[in-house]
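Design a sequence for this backbone.
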């Protein structure tokens, strides 16, 4: 009996071992599918098999991951095709930018402040109880788009040679700094593990890495070191960089500018970006002209669908440019565009609907994540003008004079609501009374209000009109503010020139950006991204003060200080409840101070897609159609 029992145990153990080996063998032999264009390269010996190109644990794209469950009915797609996108200004613009977003961590939709972010580029992370130490895990076997492995060598390079290099990073990013402005500490554990260590609690940190706007290339924690060392003076003698410096019109010592020309560090596509390894689903391969960019699938992209198909589905993206935003509708209706989001307007929705069949597209009415703010240059060099604009009563009068119903009807065809983040009462009579009471009661011969120094009080609204609703909105603001005696004009300015004017502290009023309020509510780190780090929204002086930790720039008045300090408290929070509490207080501060004015919210906007395009959101936020760009496909 005893011998029999021993025999049974032995057999069981042997069987278990073989079963274990069997499962290991099965895992090792897991097969994936790939696009025909890549399969041909594999067959020709020009590319490794797909199993060798994917990491050991690729990210499996599931419903409810990028796009909220219910907003899209996710299908297994088909390989092939070219996605044609068109944008004003630069090739691809906001369309390509959003499709290429790959944050280090991720959350569903626009963010989930009550939930822990999930892995994306990074496989995952752990956080210490005091929210000071964060351990990150890379995906073993992940490769850059040129086939080189992604390891902590890329993290070390990004930290030591880019982030801590004052020529490449003259201003250390606030979002990566300790409370005293000093850099975080990096600790490399092994080839695929590293730690980020802060002096203070920073419970918001994982959310900074999960924001879709904060992608791997704009967050300086990961750089393709094997490639970027070619443009770094520490690794390539400055003498060897001279031909490239000269070719790009740079000075003999301007290697840092050269570095950023060749790195993925901004929205724009340019010839210098060709060849730069990426982790995005598409790789820039050609720019036949300055207005056209061709991007092809990344053969080492690290995501698969639930059927084991390597993503993306679509082979190629062609990004074209129009010189003016009003040229876009003709291209769309002519069937020349497969995906249009950022530059389309609700104003043309009836026209788009009428031409659906002719243009071979579908119009989907979805929510827009970005109401348009009116922003003031609080550091304008004119002290008299500045003092008036700093006075809350002046901004209250301007806000009361905004006819929101007229804007909603005339600009948005009724598909919007009065703002909540700023008061939305329309009362020009009260606005006039406020202006009179604050000493702006004197007028010139033409009826325009005068400043205390006798000069006419003027407002110049500048816009680069990144979408078609900006100009009609600005035109109505001009009329609204003129009606209360403030001489107001508007000017269209090219986006690059307007950026220079903002940088040089030369503007008065800018209506040329977006205020991503729904995103802020989903991920409070967006406050830092689109408000506190945007000169156009907070003024050049306040920006310099904030980013230098008070060492430079212009200190905001006491009434504005909470806009900056409350965000600091959010950063230091260790629980979602704390973060939410400070977020609500921050929103109330914007509301009460009228730091910026938001005419309307809840804007509905068209998403225009090729009628054969699949995996397109049916509801929810329009931009999420871009964020899921790797699963778009042609039926």
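Sequence:
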């Amino acid at each position: 009996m005893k011998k029999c029992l021993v025999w049974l145990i032995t057999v069981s153990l042997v069987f278990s071992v073989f079963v274990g080996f069997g499962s290991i063998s099965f895992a090792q032999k897991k097969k994936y599918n790939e696009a025909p264009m890549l399969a041909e390269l594999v067959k020709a010996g020009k590319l490794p098999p797909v199993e060798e190109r994917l990491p050991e644990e690729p990210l499996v794209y599931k419903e409810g991951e990028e796009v909220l469950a219910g907003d899209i009915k996710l299908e297994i797609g088909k390989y092939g095709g070219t996605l044609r996108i068109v944008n004003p200004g630069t090739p691809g613009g906001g369309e390509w930018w959003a499709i290429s977003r790959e944050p280090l961590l991720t959350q569903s939709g626009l963010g989930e402040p009550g939930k822990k972010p999930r892995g994306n580029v990074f496989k995952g992370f752990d956080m210490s109880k005091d929210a000071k130490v964060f351990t990150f895990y890379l995906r073993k076997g992940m490769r850059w788009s040129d086939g080189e492995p992604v390891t902590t060598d890329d993290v070390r390079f990004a930290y030591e040679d880019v982030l801590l290099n004052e020529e490449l990073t003259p201003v250390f990013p606030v979002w990566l700094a300790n409370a005293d402005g000093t850099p975080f500490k990096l600790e490399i554990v092994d080839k695929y593990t590293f730690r980020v260590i802060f002096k203070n609690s920073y419970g918001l940190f994982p959310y900074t890495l999960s924001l879709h706007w904060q992608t791997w290339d704009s967050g300086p924690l990961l750089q393709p070191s094997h490639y970027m060392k070619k443009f770094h003076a520490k690794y390539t003698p400055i003498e060897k960089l001279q031909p490239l410096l000269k070719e790009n019109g740079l000075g003999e010592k301007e290697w840092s500018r050269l570095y950023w020309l060749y790195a993925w560090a901004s929205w724009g596509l340019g010839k210098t970006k060709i060849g730069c390894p990426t982790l995005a689903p598409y790789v820039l391969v050609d720019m036949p002209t300055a207005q056209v960019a061709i991007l092809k699938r990344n053969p080492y992209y690290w995501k698969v669908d639930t059927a084991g198909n390597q993503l993306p589905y679509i082979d190629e993206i062609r990004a074209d440019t129009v010189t003016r935003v009003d040229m876009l509708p003709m291209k769309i209706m002519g069937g020349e565009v497969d995906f249009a989001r950022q530059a389309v307007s609700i104003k043309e929705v009836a026209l788009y609907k009428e031409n659906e069949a002719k243009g071979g597209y579908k119009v989907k009415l979805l929510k827009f994540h970005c109401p348009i703010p009116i922003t003031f240059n609080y550091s304008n060099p004119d002290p008299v003008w500045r003092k008036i604009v700093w006075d809350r009563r002046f901004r209250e009068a301007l806000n009361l004079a905004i006819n929101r119903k007229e804007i909603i009807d005339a600009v948005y065809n009724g598909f919007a609501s009065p703002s909540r983040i700023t008061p939305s009462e329309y009362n020009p009579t009260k606005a006039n009374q406020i202006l009179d009471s604050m000493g702006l009661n004197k007028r010139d011969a033409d009826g325009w209000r005068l400043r205390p120094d006798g000069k006419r009080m003027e407002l110049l609204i500048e816009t680069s009109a990144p979408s078609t609703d900006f100009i009609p909105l600005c035109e109505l603001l001009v009329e609204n503010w003129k009606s209360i005696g403030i001489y107001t004009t508007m000017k269209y300015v090219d986006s690059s020139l307007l950026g220079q004017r903002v940088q040089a502290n030369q503007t008065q009023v800018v209506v040329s950006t977006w205020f991503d309020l729904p995103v802020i509510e989903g991920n409070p780190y967006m406050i830092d991204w689109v408000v506190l780090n945007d000169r156009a929204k907070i003024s050049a002086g306040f920006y310099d003060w904030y980013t230098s930790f008070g060492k430079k720039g212009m200190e905001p008045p006491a009434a504005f200080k909470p806009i900056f300090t409350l965000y600091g408290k959010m950063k230091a929070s260790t629980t979602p409840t704390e973060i939410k509490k400070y977020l609500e207080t921050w929103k109330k501060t914007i509301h009460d101070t009228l730091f910026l004015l938001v005419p309307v919210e809840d804007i509905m906007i068209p998403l225009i897609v090729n009628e054969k395009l699949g995996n397109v959101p049916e509801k929810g936020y329009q931009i999420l159609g871009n964020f899921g760009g790797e699963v778009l496909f042609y039926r």
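Residues 33-101+280-367+605-635 form a domain with the D-Maltodextrin-Binding Protein; domain 2 fold (CATH 3.40.190.10).
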